[in-house]
Amino acid sequence: MKSNYLRRVLTLTLLLSCLACQMAIAKPSASKDKKKPAESWRGVHLFVASDEAVDDLSESLTNLTAVGINTIILEVGYNFEFKSHPELRSGRNPVTRAHARKLAAVARKNGVRLIPELDCLGHQSWKKSDHPLLRVYPQFMEPIGTNTDTNGAHLHSWCPQQKKVYPIIFSLMDELMEAFDADAFHVGMDEVFCIASDKCPRCKGADPAKLYAKAVNDLHKHIVGKRKKEMLMWGDRLLDSKALGYSKWEASRNGTHGAIDLIPKDIVVCDWHYEKSTNYPSVPLLLEKGFRVWPSGWQPLEATKAFSAFSLAEKNPRLVGYLVTAWSRANVRTAATWPPLVEVMKDWKK
Ligand SMILES: [Zn+2]
């Protein structure tokens, strides 16, 4: 009995010492990681809709790195030579795999991270024309309801409960991530005005926050769960417009904001605001909720500088850097000399 007891004590002691040993081994590497200061994500969002744009960006890359850029959100959308769904290619000259790979090689050489973007759920149309998904598969569209905000009615959405959408979209994402050698994907998800339509047989009467969160979670399962990549999204639908004092574009007035508590916290939220202010309450809110936050400004210069200064003052390690959205004001050629980008990046290079 006694020897059995001693053997058990000895075994337990050995097990504990092994465990302590492993912890001791693990600790230095963890503390080593902490010592290494994370570099700010100094980003620009650009439209890249053709091989010409891809090549122009390859040539402009060193100009962008010279002003501090180390991350580029490439909004390619449907403008790619998709092989899985050629019926969804947009434009006469969509981006080809060969040119995308060439850009990826130049980016890697220059230490620039490329993150492709395809708008999901909302933004499936512009003005009077649908983008390819709803043009080819009109049955996927969330119908405009009597409860749809008419100001956003030209921005069609797909129905988040239309299960056939997702295998298609996942194939497109996989092709884009592979072509640009990307370790992350931006799913858009901004300005979703048409959701929980009272004319949709699947969504009528449903909670918009739960429907929006379902779409985010479905995308997350594929990008993060299955493909082991990082996921980024615009933040406006997670914010309560009235509570935070933002417009109905940069925050939600259509009931989606409750989704902020229903989605994974490892998503990087691109929190965009274009008005000059002394306070941007969404930044501390999203940080408190546990997200990594990438504040995103545009123009005028004074507004993007104000948002940048506010964000810098947060001094939170989960605030990853600053993203400048160029939209129609700058392109792959001109972004490197565009004042809102050049001026703001000076602060984030320090
Ligand atoms: Zn629906």
Condensed summary:
By secondary structure, this protein is of the alpha/beta class. The chain has helices spanning about 1-35, 50-65, 95-110, 130-135, 165-180, 210-225, 240-245, 280-290, 300-315, 340-350; strands at about 40-45, 70-75, 115-120, 125, 130, 185-190, 230-235, 270, 290-295, 320-325. The chain has 2 domains: about 1-35; about 40-350, Alpha-Beta Barrel (TIM Barrel), CATH 3.20.20.
Explain the layout of strands and helices.
Elements: H1 2-35, E1 41-47, H2 51-66, E2 71-75, H3 97-109, E3 113-120, E4 125-126, E5 129-130, H4 132-136, H5 165-179, E6 184-188, H6 208-226, E7 230-234, H7 241-244, E8 268-272, H8 282-289, E9 292-297, H9 301-314, E10 321-325, H10 339-349
Parallel strand pairs: 1-2, 1-10, 2-3, 3-6, 6-7, 7-8, 8-9, 9-10
Antiparallel strand pairs: 4-5
Helix pairs in contact: 2-3, 9-10
The chain binds zinc ion (ZN).
Descriptive report:
This protein is of the alpha/beta class. The chain has two domains: 1-35; 42-349, TIM Barrel. It is 40% helix and 14% strand. It has helices spanning 2-35, 51-66, 97-109, 132-136, 165-179, 208-226, 241-244, 282-289, 301-314, 339-349, and strands at residues 41-47, 71-75, 113-120, 125-126, 129-130, 184-188, 230-234, 268-272, 292-297, 321-325. The protein has an eight-stranded parallel barrel with strand order 1-2-3-6-7-8-9-10, surrounded by six helices. A two-stranded antiparallel sheet has the order 4-5. A hairpin with a 2-residue loop joins strand 4 and strand 5 (129-130). Helix 2 (51-66) runs parallel beside helix 3 and helix 9 packs parallel to helix 10. The longest helix has 34 residues, at 2-35. The chain is globular, with a radius of gyration of 23 Å. 42% of the residues are buried. Zinc ion binds next to loops.
